[in-house]
Design brief:
Cell wall formation. By secondary structure, the protein is α+β, with helices and mostly antiparallel strands. Helix content is 31%, strand content 30%. The protein contains 10 helices and 18 strands. Strand 4 and strand 5 form a beta hairpin.
Length: 328
């Protein structure tokens, strides 16, 4: 008998748009000979299962079930493709743990920690050959913190919401005159803001996942953007960014990066597929950790999809690996 899998999408943030696009791709590529897929949309105060005709049926939060045409539907597991809150920050994971349903992504603690860029960097900072940019984690948009930035950090700076994703609310600041506007923009998205010194280097993003008792590091994608940095527009607008998979790294860099990201994955106790963004610094080649994404996009052109195809693997088989791993 085929397993019933709830494909969870939507969300409480601006990333819900990307989540819905990812869900559409997963539905088209998942192995329907093995699984029955039910699209479940989660929005503030409105959780529902939507069938192929667009009919909607409320989710019973007591056991995460739905009743359609008089028949109760329960799920064997959850394929989580909900970016941002509550799918990526641990809230949904905690709920699924309480109702006893397995899911494809990280547990509540790992999800909560990795959603916070500052906390994540503190945890991975002792990994050999991993470097992090000098930064400040701010909890208030105050004159005191403004002064601290000027006293302790050097321009140019990246200013970003500490718990956000898809580069929403992020700015690159070259002079003091741009600083307050960037802080206001970031604090509009989050109560915590990360301010870090700019690292001049080649930018990459690399997927890592666990299945079959082993951790697999996928080929990295090199990000070459025509914009100042890889922001929301650059990520999701065709033609702005060149994505080279596999990225241009020599054998030593491939080996070193693979070791580092596997250690990051294991040190943070990750599950399922994650994506790690990093720089290789110009001149030195040092690995600078940027951030980790524990619910990476699954659109047709997403970096994870490119990297899976680069190793000669069908995306359908990749999804099967992720689903089966949650039942181990």
């Amino acid at each position: 008998m085929k397993k019933k899998i709830a494909l969870v999408t939507g969300g409480f943030t601006g990333e819900s748009v990307i989540s819905l696009k990812s869900a559409a791709v997963v539905i088209r590529n998942i192995d329907l000979d093995k699984y029955d897929i039910f699209k479940v949309l989660i929005f503030p105060g409105n959780w529902y299962y939507e069938n192929e005709r667009g009919d909607q049926f409320p989710i019973d939060l007591n056991d995460f079930s739905a009743t359609a045409y008089g028949n109760k539907i329960t799920f064997d597991g959850v394929f989580n493709i909900l970016h941002g809150s509550p799918g990526e920050d641990g809230k949904l994971a905690g709920y699924f743990d309480m109702v006893g349903i397995p899911y494809t992504t990280c547990d509540p603690l790992t999800s909560a920690i990795t959603m916070n860029k500052g906390y994540t960097k503190a945890i991975v900072n002792d990994i050999p050959d991993l470097h992090v940019a000098k930064s400040l984690q701010l909890f208030k948009n105050s004159q005191e913190n403004y002064t601290r930035i000027l006293d302790e950090l050097n321009f140019p700076l990246f200013i970003k919401p500490n718990n956000g994703g898809s580069s929403i609310g992020m700015s690159k600041v070259k002079t003091e005159g741009e600083l307050q506007e960037a802080l206001d923009k970031a604090f509009k998205e989050d109560k915590q803001v990360l301010v870090e010194e700019f690292v001049s280097g080649r930018e990459f993003s690399i997927g890592v996942y666990s299945a079959g008792g082993k951790t697999t590091v996928l080929p990295a994608t090199e990000i070459v953007s025509s914009k100042e940095f890889f922001d929301f527009e650059a990520k999701y607008t065709s033609g702005i960014t060149e994505e080279i998979t596999p990225g241009r790294m020599n054998e030593e860099e491939i080996r070193r990066v693979g070791q580092i990201v596997a250690l990051v994955y294991n040190q943070l106790n990750c599950k399922g597929a994650i994506r790690i963004d990093y720089f290789l610094e110009h001149d030195t080649g040092k690995f600078f950790f940027i951030e980790i994404n524990t619910v990476p996009g699954q659109t047709e052109t997403s970096l994870i999809s490119q990297q899976v195809k680069a190793i000669g693997m069908e995306v359908k088989d990749f999804y099967t690996d992720l689903i089966e791993e949650m039942f181990v």
